Amino acid sequence: MDESLHRRSLLAGLGAGVATALAGCAALGDASDSGPEPYRIGGISIINRDDAVHALGLRIERDEELVLDETFDLPANSPGDVTAVTEVAAASFDGCTAGSYGITAALDDTDRRLLEAPDECEVRTNAWRTLLVEDDGALRWGVTTVSDDDANCRTPTPSGGLES
């Protein structure tokens, strides 16, 4: 599918006032496994909620192979401006391929941090995983529900939270 259509679908969903809720999901595996079972992470969008401009370096590995290493220049959020939330960056990679994912992020010139999946899982098939840059510079995972199932994987996809 054309990347601009993915972005339009996401922006249309955000413009329609869809809710972004903090949620997470662990890799699909059981305690007897020597490692997590393969899983999908789906699409990832990035939203800056801070009133400062940021550069976010995002690195994604699947089965120890690099699938994305990109820096996103994020415009400042304008408090009270409802159009500011539509300033969305979309990470361009195949998150619908099952595998063992490792995600790290660096905000501005800070050290790279590992993004790790928490214990609880919220399953949504029509969702993008959203990396939120909060007003204090913290990074948080959210889930943005969109109406277009083609904008993401059709199977449940895990998300994560930041390692402390």
UniProtKB/TrEMBL annotation:
InterPro entries: TAT_signal. This is Uncharacterized protein. It comes from Halomarina salina.
